[in-house]
Amino acid sequence: MWLLWMMLVQLPTPSAILLQNPPAIPTMAVCWLAARRHRAKLVIDWHNYGWTILALAQGAGHPLVRVARSYERFWGRSGDAHFCVTKAMQEDLRHNWNVDAVVLYDRPPAFFRRTPLPAVHILFRKLGAALEQPAFNDFYTHAVAARASQETAELTAVTIKRPNQPAAYKPGRPAIVVSSTSWTPDEDFSILLDAAVQYDRMAAATAAAAGGSSNAGAEAAATAVLGPRLPDVLLLITGKGPQKEEYMARIRELKFSKVAIRSLWLEAADYPLLLGAADVGVSLHASSSGLDLPMKVVDMYGSGLPVCALSYSCITELVTPGETGLLFSDGRELADQLAGLLAGFPEAPGAQLRELQRNVEQREQGLRWDENWQQVAAPVMGY
């Protein structure tokens, strides 16, 4: 009732009402009534279908899901104009719902960009307490304990700053791999956890083959057999959700020698800084409809990150495999991709990682949100 009162009575008379869907219930009907009340243009921005999200929990054949689909189809067709986020959704709307939508791809805001080194140092100093978790049995916890009594400089996970000197990256620093998740069944975190376990084994094997020795012959022999040494990986997961504590409890039971996993809840201003400080992004997004795209990948591209993304029907409208990212179907495949990208990091990053970084910079960091809105959305909105 509050939404109805606000839209029909309190809302200053607009020329257009922009409705992002989902959620559909009761928003679609309320916004249609408000548009008629104010004689405004109703523009629906289709990011997904709300009924498909409900179907994840209830099952596609549940009566509530059938009602939700009918409701969304009926009221969705009442819009005066439409946007959608993929060509696949555009075709689905046209074919199944007789809705003609303009494709408006998400683009990153300008504040998503590479983070300068001084800001990286400040950010990771700020995150220090969240990263230093003695309950975890991994390389990072051991490294923190080892340096606690002999620290002579400002040290973070990836940087060092000595008195009267600028911040610098630490030699042999870990690779920062970042992922954002809702900790819900539609984003299967077990895939990433399985990949972390398998990457840890591979990285430990390359380190053991070289024997931790500075002997050039041993290092060359190990490289010939297993490839370049794999770096430690600090895997940072952002977001909150119902399955978070379940998975973090499982992680605390694991023993890692080359991987550390931390869950972070960041201030809004720190999220783009973290993306801009990372080396590789991972997306676990599995579309409920098979027709939408993960906004997190758009933000990662804006920050200059190559992305490993879970494969599904229309993801190639955003991620070009082998050019701006890689696609995986399970944990084994993701572990292999991370190993291929990070071999030799940071001293001698491989050709694949450098090529993906270069392609992301050239193809994905030019067009930003505001310019894209003016080019595509403004004419539809009528200004």
TrEMBL record:
<keyword id="KW-0256">Endoplasmic reticulum</keyword>
<keyword id="KW-0812">Transmembrane</keyword>
<keyword id="KW-0472">Membrane</keyword>
<keyword id="KW-1133">Transmembrane helix</keyword>
<feature type="signal peptide">
    <location>
        <begin position="1"/>
        <end position="16"/>
    </location>
</feature>
<dbReference type="Pfam" id="PF13579">
    <property type="entry name" value="Glyco_trans_4_4"/>
</dbReference>
<dbReference type="Pfam" id="PF13692">
    <property type="entry name" value="Glyco_trans_1_4"/>
</dbReference>
<feature type="domain" description="Glycosyltransferase subfamily 4-like N-terminal">
    <location>
        <begin position="4"/>
        <end position="102"/>
    </location>
</feature>
<dbReference type="GO" id="GO:0000030">
    <property type="term" value="F:mannosyltransferase activity"/>
</dbReference>
<keyword id="KW-0808">Transferase</keyword>
<protein>
    <recommendedName>
        <fullName>Glycosyltransferase subfamily 4-like N-terminal domain-containing protein</fullName>
    </recommendedName>
</protein>
<comment type="pathway">
    <text>Protein modification; protein glycosylation.</text>
</comment>
<keyword id="KW-0328">Glycosyltransferase</keyword>
<dbReference type="InterPro" id="IPR028098">
    <property type="entry name" value="Glyco_trans_4-like_N"/>
</dbReference>
<dbReference type="InterPro" id="IPR026051">
    <property type="entry name" value="ALG1-like"/>
</dbReference>
<dbReference type="GO" id="GO:0005789">
    <property type="term" value="C:endoplasmic reticulum membrane"/>
</dbReference>
<keyword id="KW-0732">Signal</keyword>
